[in-house]
Amino acid sequence: MKKQTFLRAFFYIASLLILAMGIMLNTKSGLGVSAIISVAYSISIISKTNFGNVTFLLYAVFVVAEIILHIIRNRRYSRTANAAVAPAAHRDLKLVIIMDLLQLPLSLVFTRFMNLFSALLPDPSGHIAAQFLFLAAGIILTGIGAAMSLDMRIVPNPGDGIVQAIADCVGKPVGLTKNCFDLCNICLTASIGLIFAHRLVGIGIGTVIAVLAVGRVVAIFNHFFMEKMTAAAGVEY
Length: 237
What we know:
The chain is mainly alpha-helical and 237 residues long. The protein is 81% helix and 0% strand. The chain contains 8 helices and no strands.
C-alpha cells in the first residue's frame, strides 16, 4: 500500500513537471502556443507581464467557472432526484468544490514550474529545424503529462478540469467539448491580438498541430502504459 501511494504521488508530480515542460517547449518553438494557454500568452505578451503569473490568473478563472458549473449541475440533478438521494448529492457537491479549490495551489506550483522552464530553455528562433523539434517535443510531453495527471485521478489541472466540468454540465463527450473549448480559446486569443496589437499573437501552425496531435499522444500513451501505471499506483477504474 505504501509503495502504491508513493508511486501514485511520484507519477502525479512527474506529470506536472512533464506537462509544464511540454507547454514551455511548445511556447518556445515560436510556431504558436497550445490553445489552452493561448489567451494567457497573448495577454502576457501584449501587457509585457509574466506568462506564468497570467496563466495562474487564467486558471483561477477556470476554477471559479468549474465551481459555478458544478453547482448548476448539482441543482439540476437535485430537482430530478428523489429525496433519499438528495442529501448524498449535496455531500458530493461539497467534495467536488473542495477538489475544485485544490486546483488553485496546484496551479500556483504548476505555473512556477512554467517560469522555471521558461528561464532554463533556450530560444530556437531563427533555426526552423530546431523550432519544429521543440514543437514536436512539446506536443509529446504535453500529451504524456496530461495523460499521467488524469490517470492518477488526484487533482486535475484546471485546463482539464474546466473541460470536464463543461462536458458534465452540457452532457457532451469530453473529446468534443475539448475541441470546442480549444476553438473558443483560439478565437478569443485571435481577437485579443487583433484588437490590442493589430496582429495575431501566439497563434500559428504550432497551435493547429497541437490541437490535432496532443489528443492522439494521450490516446497512444494510455494504450501502452495506462493499465500498467494505474495498477502499480493502485488506481482503480
